[in-house]
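S1.2 Input.
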Amino acid sequence: MSAEGLRALEARITACRACPRLVAWREEVGRVKKRAHADEEYWARPVPGFGDSDPWLFVVGLAPAAHGANRTGRMFTGDRSGDVLYAALHRAGLASQAESRARDDGLTLRGCRIAAAVRCAPPGNRPTPDERARCRHFLVRELDLCPRTSVVLALGAIGWDAVLRTIEPPRPWPRFGHGAEATLPGGRTLLGSYHPSQQNVFTGRLTPEMLDAVLARARALRAAPGDD
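S1.3 Output.
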């Protein structure tokens, strides 16, 4: 049932045109393209979640990269952030391979699913508050369709905020930070990590060891120790 529901949600997501600014930008990027990808056909639509249909770990990023997921049609695929994230997931035994280049590259996730706070590539990687709010119902629904999820990993402050806003806002509002934790309704744990952006990695704000440690903590927090 979850897989069927997720397929239906995917169809709704990819057909969405609710945010005029984002629609215009994602389609313009798909027409103009980057020189390195001039011969490729860009996805240039909202990007649905990817991974296990019954995950224990649910990862929430910011939004598709203009020439990454907006090009390939799969979250964190074809960009530097994805290089860092999927390498870490592979080391943690959650991804079948360490690289994510294209939708048909054979990559699979085990026990893990990846989505985003905003499903369209935003100009400057900065969705507006209204755009974030308008997209939130997709995340609410996707989390509902993954009832065995016990840990939600937010990559960056916007992902953290998006997850908290899918529920009755807690008071006081849990502060985001690398390794931060908050308890969600139903016994789920929200875990924070700095986003694996090129800037964070190049400046050393996020290292592979730091990301490995967060994923190790996520595994330790699993509600069902026998799950893979």
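S1.4 Remarks. The beta strands are 50-51, 57-61, 112-116, 151-155, 181-183, 189-193.
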